Amino acid sequence: MRDVVWPQPVLDLLTRDPERPVFEDGDRVVRAGEASAAVARIAAGLRAAGAGPGTGVALDLGVSAEALAATLAAFAVGARVCGLPPALPPTQRDDLLARADVALVVDDAFLAELLATPADGPVVAAGRPGDVARVTWTSGTSGRPKGCVQTYAAMTAAWAPSPDRWPPAVAALAPRLARYLVVGPLSHQVVLEYAVLTLAAGGVLVAARPPGFPEAITRHRASASVITVGRLHQLVRAQLERPTDLSTLRALLVSGSPLEPARLAEALDVLGPVVFHGYGQTEAGMIAMATPDEMLADPAVTASVGRAPDVVDVQVRDGELWVRTPAQASGYWGDPQETAEVFVDGWVRTRDLGDVDDRGYVHLRGRARDVVIVDAQLVHAGPVERVLADDPAVAEAYVVARPDDVTGEAVHAFVVPAHGAEPDTAALCARVADRLGPLAVPSSVTLVDEVPLAPSGKPDKAALVARATV
User: Can you give the pLDDT at residue 368?
Assistant: First the structure.
């Protein structure tokens, strides 16, 4: 008998109760049987187009019941699936598709053709455990999108579709997912994970039309959603200035950049016991989580990112966190050097500094890598610095992170002018936007005569961070 492989548990869930609502888009309600039939037609169309185990399929889709069906169908035929990051500059998009060895790009037009294909029988997951199931591409702010690889075996090991394997924090979250507000593409790793968890918990996916907090929560009577740190700050401020009825809200899953304990406590006070604070990475998935009940019972927990489930191992090596999780990635697509640095003997090097207290709570203390987390996306400082320094009017350029109420963190640049030159800061920002995309654009550029040095003689970025936050 063939072993159950991802996404078979989700396919089975859709066929188990055909009349159950699973997706809501305005006045349109899509039931499980309809979604299952759409998966069957799209899978048949993909196979007819040559897709199967090992075939590269890229998804360029938004938020819809059909996009969910296409995502499940691409996995069901055993393809190597990747979602295209939004807002990629055209040159980076073309480069990504070439490097990813993509045979088919499923956009809205092609999806319509696939949906017109007659189904050829029940859908049975055809993925091979050792094959690459998903390549999750970064935004490209490192200068070039980087693809994080998960096998079908890893995705099969994920706990989201299996209530009997939910960790305690996830089990506490699941009943709150009655109406999960979807605010990003379903091919996105975090969005899809909580969508699957919602379906397994008996909830409904609700398309945000248009997106935006708090209006979307109120309009759609949402009970849960994923929210970035910047948008959480905006929601708290909006509730303080113009309170609105958020009585349906039961869970906000904070994603992206670090959340200061004082701001987390404020969010719990203003929004109520709905904020789930956690820690995860594309390479490892969820590493730790704290529930609102834990944080309200013991405010000291707000200084952590929660506890790791029993099935997740966390070690501290020379101050850096290393982890092992059931569904972790196995490397980076086409990048053996970076793979060797991060994936070591079954462990994932997080490149985050931290420790674990005697109760098992994980605390983050900083980063071993030079990045800024903007709207839950990594912006690597080095490429931004190189683009800025390419300008003839710039002698030196340094980038640091600064807290930001809109994006969680923002890029702040310090520039030393070339002798006798006066850099045009607007032109510098435009140069970064053109080369690396809008996420990497500095929110501000400060001209300085010189950069402070650390005792090692290297530029002291800690001193620049302190200067940026004054």
Answer: 74
> In sequence order, what are the residues at sequence separation of 6 or more whose Cβ sits closer than 8 angstroms to the Cβ of residue 185?
59, 61, 62, 63, 67, 83, 86, 191
User: What is the token pair recorded at 66?
Assistant: 């059909």
- Quote the pLDDT of residue 299: 95
Judge residue 381's burial from the number of C-beta atoms within 10 Å of its C-beta, 0-12 exposed, 13-18 middle, 19 or more buried. Answer: buried
Mark out the alpha helices in 272-424 (DSSP H runs): 292-297, 336-342, 381-389
Tokens standing for residue 279: 């820690």
Instruction: Based on the fold, state whether residues 332 and 379 are members of the same structural domain.
Output: no
- Separation of alpha carbons 380 and 460, rounded Å: 17
pLDDT of residue 86: 74
Q: Give the Cα separation of 243 and 142 in Å (integer).
A: 39
Helix axis angle, 65-76 to 32-48, nearest 10°: 50
The answer to whether 314 touches 361, Cβ cutoff 8 Å, is: no
> Domain end: 126, 152, 178, which one?
152
**Residue showing tokens 């462990």:** 347
pLDDT at 1 (0 to 100): 36
Residue 296: Cβ-neighbour burial (10 angstroms; 0-12, 13-18, 19+): middle
Give the 3-state secondary structure of 115-164: HCCCCCCCCCCCCCCCCEEEEEECCCCCCCCCEEEEEHHHHHHCCCCCHH
Assess contact for 327 and 150: CB atoms under 8 A. Answer: yes
Which of 64, 138, 77, 130 has the alpha carbon at shortest distance from 103?
A: 77
Looking at the DSSP assignment, which residues form a beta bridge with residue 158? none
Residue ranges in the chain modelled with pLDDT below 70:
1-2, 87, 139-144, 257, 455-458, 468-470
Of 431, 391, 384, 377, the closest CA to residue 412 belongs to 384
208 within 8 A of 24, measured Cβ to Cβ:
no
Query: What pLDDT shows up at residue 131?
Result: 98
Number of domains the chain contains: 3
Which residue matches tokens 């360029």? Answer: 60
Same domain, 254 and 195: yes
- Pick the last residue of a domain from 152, 183, 210: 152
CA distances 250 to 98, 341, 418, Å, are 42, 40, 54
